[in-house]
Design a protein that fits this description.
Layout (H helix, E strand, L loop, with lengths): L8 H22 L5 H13 L7 H22 L11 H17 L4 H10 L3 H24 L3
Helix pairs in contact: 2-3, 5-6
Length: about 150
């Protein structure tokens, strides 16, 4: 259910548009798909293995931008966007590990498949996004309705 008191469609539209614009620019200028997990993994590989350094500079620039983005936002507005974590630290760490495993098995993450893959009409990305979504729905249902009964 949407929390109508905190529903911010304009900022969501602007944020989504900026992500889409960034994905389009990266694809047009570099011929690369904006998949955050792939960019992070390739950057780490380039740092650890000198032979894999092709494209390392733009990948590092992307990751630095991901880190600096919230800092710049905070400097401009005086606060960070509010977020609420309803899980304990251990569950968040476990969830992050499971997501990382899933991105490896699925050959990409939600940004790569959901934004770029679907925009390219990739059947593989459609299958991945449907799997991500179905898994999220089932997990949410189990955690909200079956756990602790």
């Amino acid at each position: 259910m949407i929390d109508i008191d905190n529903f911010t469609p304009l900022s969501a539209l602007i944020g989504g548009g900026l992500i889409g614009l960034a994905a389009a620019i990266l694809y047009v200028l570099n011929g690369r798909v904006l998949g955050a997990s792939g960019i992070a993994a390739s950057a780490l590989e380039g740092i650890l293995h000198p032979a894999a350094r092709d494209g390392l500079s733009w990948r590092l620039a992307f990751l630095v931008g991901v880190i600096l983005g919230p800092i710049i936002y905070m400097l401009l507005t005086g606060t960070l966007p509010q977020s609420e974590y309803i899980a304990q630290d251990g569950r968040l760490i476990l969830a992050g590990l499971i997501v990382g495993l899933g991105t490896g098995i699925g050959s990409g993450c939600t940004s790569g498949h959901g934004i770029c893959g679907l925009a390219r009409f990739s059947r593989r990305s459609l299958a991945a996004v449907l799997t991500f979504m179905a898994t999220g729905f089932v997990t949410t249902f189990i955690l909200n309705h079956l756990v602790g009964m």
